[in-house]
């Protein structure tokens, strides 16, 4: 059974940093492209960042480019999102989501809540 | 960037009725690269449809997708109380900017 479990969320002040983790199991993690998708309270879904299976290709949404860094450790079956210079508008549930063999999201984690507030 | 516009914003129907949800793209979506997701209250999204019309594994056949180009539709043939959710469309033909519609909320009377 495919499982994605996020951790690392919490309350942080504007300008602060936080690192999210996503532990993957039930599939060969090193062969799948992975993403972070977020959802602000009461709002819709926003794709945040993508990383290829090897980590050689990385993309970011304009809203986070230059502040967030995605990475992965295939030996540990883990995905990460380093978030720096956080803003109040970054407040959201952050989902780890797997790409199928085509770029739609076939599995999602349960989400990790990040609150940016003073 | 392809902008997806979903309508209506909210759909209120009775069990057994047919629900028709629309997703319109600002430009043609290549190769019908459109997916639909269901998000129940307090849960993560779940994949329903990909390739505009292919049901994901385990999805009941009362859910169907159709459309091409810029106009796509998700149909729930006979609503059940458990279908209470927000439904999102997503295009994946224009990488690396994968965009979602703003969602349609389905309420059960």
What's the short version?
By secondary structure, chain A is mainly β.
Protein described:
The complex is a heterodimer of chains A (118) and B (109). Helices cover 0% and strands 52% of the residues of chain A. Chain A is mainly β and 118 residues long. Chain B contains no helices and eleven strands. Chain B has 109 residues and is mainly β. Chain A binds chain B through residues 35, 44-47, 50, 59, 61, 95, 100, 102-111, and chain B through 33, 35, 37, 39, 43-47, 50-51, 56, 88, 90, 92, 95-103.
Structure characteristics:
heterodimer; A: 118 residues; mainly beta; seven-stranded mixed sheet; four-stranded antiparallel sheet; 11 strands; 0% helix; B: 109 residues
How is this fold's topology laid out?
The complex is a heterodimer of chains A (118) and B (109).
Chain A: E1 3-7, E2 10-12, E3 18-25, E4 34-39, E5 45-51, E6 58-60, E7 68-73, E8 78-83, E9 92-99, E10 105-108, E11 112-116
Parallel strand pairs in A: 2-11
Antiparallel strand pairs in A: 1-3, 3-8, 4-5, 4-9, 5-6, 7-8, 9-10, 9-11
Chain B: E1 4-7, E2 10-13, E3 19-25, E4 34-39, E5 46-50, E6 54-55, E7 63-68, E8 71-76, E9 85-91, E10 99-100, E11 104-108
Parallel strand pairs in B: 2-11
Antiparallel strand pairs in B: 1-3, 3-8, 4-5, 4-9, 5-6, 7-8, 9-10, 9-11
Mean pLDDT of chain B: 95
Give the uncertain stretches of chain B in residue-range form.
Answer: none
**Biggest β-sheet strands, sense, barrel of chain A:** 7 strands, mixed
The Cα radius of gyration of chain A reads 13 Å
Reported for the largest beta sheet of chain B, the result is: 7 strands, mixed
Structural class of chain A: mainly beta
Q: What sequence of helices (H) and strands (E) makes up the elements of chain B?
A: EEEEEEEEEEE
Give the helix tally of chain B: 0
Low-confidence stretches of chain A: none
Span between termini of chain A: 40 Å
């Amino acid at each position: 059974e495919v499982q994605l479990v996020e951790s690392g969320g919490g309350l942080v002040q504007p300008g602060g940093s936080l690192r999210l983790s996503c532990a993957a199991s039930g599939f060969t993690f090193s062969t799948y492209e992975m993403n972070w998708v977020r959802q602000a309270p009461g709002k819709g879904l926003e794709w945040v960042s993508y990383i290829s299976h090897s980590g050689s290709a990385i993309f970011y949404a304009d809203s986070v480019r230059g502040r967030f860094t995605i990475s992965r450790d295939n030996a540990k079956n883990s995905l990460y999102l380093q978030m720096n210079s956080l803003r109040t508008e970054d407040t959201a549930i952050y989902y780890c989501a797997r790409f199928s063999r085509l770029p739609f999201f076939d599995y999602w984690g349960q989400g990790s809540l990040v609150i940016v507030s003073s | 960037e392809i902008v997806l516009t979903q309508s209506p914003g909210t759909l209120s129907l009775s069990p057994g009725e047919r629900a028709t949800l629309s997703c319109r793209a600002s430009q043609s979506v290549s190769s019908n690269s459109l997916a639909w997701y269901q998000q129940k209250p307090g849960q993560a999204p779940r994949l329903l449809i990909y390739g505009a019309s292919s049901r994901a594994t385990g999805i009941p056949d009362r859910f169907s997708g159709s459309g091409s180009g810029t106009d796509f539709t998700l149909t729930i043939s006979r609503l059940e109380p458990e279908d209470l959710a927000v439904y999102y469309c997503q295009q994946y033909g224009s990488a690396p900017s994968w965009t979602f519609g703003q969602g349609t909320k389905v309420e059960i009377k």
